[in-house]
């Protein structure tokens, strides 16, 4: 779905309609997570990142799809909304436990997310 997002060095545009269309075009989607990078290398979410995340959660809920996480990839770390601002994503106990477990795994200086659910 990332192919449908436009960006520049300091901003990205996420269209809720494009996100909705991408979800509806897939068969049997029950969960979704999204990610983007910050070219600055600092994965701290901007106010716009927070607003977009809330909007994507709303869209997902209307489609009865669990919005598990929004990752922001930085130079040396990955920010997880599920870990740091869980109210911005759906409540899924299995995924929450998974995120907490993954937070303890490191590879070099970077956090590792083994996506085996």
TrEMBL record:
Protein name: RadC-like JAB domain-containing protein
Keyword line: Hydrolase, Metal-binding, Metalloprotease, Protease, Zinc
Any one GO molecular function term: metallopeptidase activity
Origin superkingdom: Bacteria
Domain MPN: start-end pairs: 1-87
One GO process term, biological-process aspect: proteolysis
Keyword Transferase carried by entry: no
Native organism: Virgibacillus chiguensis
Family membership: Belongs to the UPF0758 family.
InterPro entries, per the entry: MPN (IPR037518), RadC_JAB (IPR025657), UPF0758 (IPR001405), UPF0758_CS (IPR020891)
UniProt keyword Protease present: yes
